[in-house]
Amino acid sequence: MLEVKSYRDLKVWQLGMDLVHAVYEHTKHFPQSELYALTSQVRRAAVSVPSNIAEGHARESTREFLHFLAICSGSLAELETQLFIAERLQYLDSTALKATLGKCDEVGRMLRSLQKTLRVKLG
């Protein structure tokens, strides 16, 4: 098993970064009128995912890491909802929605697995 020395070693963080990249690529095409509304919210929610993984990993305790992973899960649910909104408003086509939700699902599964592992560690 690979030793985790940095949050950058975590596959879930790496996939979170890929998710941010995908979201930024898609939101480039949102209407200019949404720049300070939905575009900003979608981007913030996406950025929150790997950011909270990194911050939680840097904390002093497993319990704190779990807290930040819970925040991360909430941001992921927020992002998914905003992506559905973007599709309903026809800012995002169904192919892009499906691909991005697939990334969200993968990150979500990895988050839940990491949370489960950390809870076992807590006892």
UniProtKB/TrEMBL annotation:
Superkingdom, natural source: Bacteria
Alphabetical list of InterPro entries matching this protein: 23S_rRNA-intervening_sequence, 23S_rRNA_IVS_sf
Name this protein carries in UniProt: Four helix bundle protein
